[in-house]
Design goal:
About 5% of the residues lie in helices and about 50% in strands. By secondary structure, it is mainly β. The protein has a single domain, classed as Outer membrane phospholipase (ompla), Chain C, CATH 2.40.230.
Length: about 290
């Protein structure tokens, strides 16, 4: 799945989860702690990603998307600050429980030889609760175990929304900020995440089912099972180019060998790779600052 922000989110959250897109609007430097960041930000960004059409696909495509965004760094409600829209119910030195979101690009089946003649894959949105355990947590460093469970919805033409099951994507996520690149005007933040993804039967079927009406000699009918979907590693970096402009770049590697539906005729590759680049420009920042946390 081609994760956006948080997308949705996402993110990301994609999985790309803890994806390059999830750094939109966040600012971590040696001299800026949470108390120095505005309570509100409004801006616009753009994401370009080249990645596989779906997990295990043998075709990749480029997708681009402009993203207006709002960041609110409240005590309970947080929007866009390292994730999607989050209602934070528990937040202490070790544990955080919130509601988060993510999303994935769509894919046209006629542009993919394996799926040609089948229904397109729509834009996917995800939302659900997430539990975090903070192994390390500071303005410059973090290491977290993230346990998100999200319901997945497809959004088709005419904004038709359909449930597509759910996903469980535990991640070990790390961030290091305040690094000197030697050539950029501001310090760099690097981030990484790794972990498996599990999908319900409905979600797996969305990617791997072949209905009898779509079956042919090279693509026999197939009914997907729920279970292990694959594992992903995401690496990325972001930095401020100006006080209001931030850029990011990242890569994603997905391994789907041993997945529950590796024998589907739509599962063509055990290994997928993708890259994403983008920027975010904050054209409004409130004078009021976020409370320290």
């Amino acid at each position: 799945m081609k994760k956006l922000l948080a997308l949705l989110a996402l993110l990301p959250a994609t999985t790309f989860a803890t994806s390059p897109e999830q750094e939109i609007g966040t600012t971590y430097t040696k001299s800026s702690a949470m108390a120095d960041r505005p309570l509100w930000e409004v801006g616009v960004g753009a994401i370009g990603a080249y990645s596989a059409d779906y997990p295990g696909a043998d075709h990749s495509h480029f997708n681009g998307l402009p993203i207006p965004y709002v960041i609110y760094r409240g005590d309970f409600l947080r929007i866009g600050d390292g994730g999607g829209v989050r209602g934070v119910f528990i937040d202490d030195n070790r544990w955080e429980f919130d509601v988060s979101a993510d999303a994935s690009f769509d894919a046209e089946s006629d542009d993919n030889d394996t799926r040609r003649g089948m229904d397109d894959l729509d834009f996917l949105a995800e939302v659900g609760p997430q539990l975090k355990y903070k192994i390390i947590s500071s303005p410059l460093q973090s290491l977290e175990v993230r346990l998100p469970v999200r319901a997945v919805f497809s959004i088709g033409d005419g904004l038709e929304i359909q449930g597509q099951g759910y996903t469980f994507a535990p991640r070990l996520a790390a961030r290091q900020s305040g690094l000197d690149s030697g050539f950029l005007p501001k310090p760099v933040t690097v981030f990484a995440s790794v972990g498996p993804t599990f999908g319900s039967e409905d979600l797996q079927g969305y990617f791997y089912d072949v209905a009898p009406k779509f079956a042919n000699t090279n693509r026999p009918a197939y009914r997907a099972d729920g279970g292990y979907l694959g594992s992903e590693l995401t690496l990325g970096a972001s930095s401020e180019l100006t006080p209001r402009l931030r850029a990011f770049v990242g890569g994603n590697l997905g391994y789907y060998g041993g997945a529950a539906n590796a024998d589907s005729p739509l599962h063509k590759r055990d290994l997928n790779a993708g890259v994403a680049v983008g920027f975010a420009w904050s054209f409004y920042q409130s004078d009021e600052k976020a409370a320290p946390r």
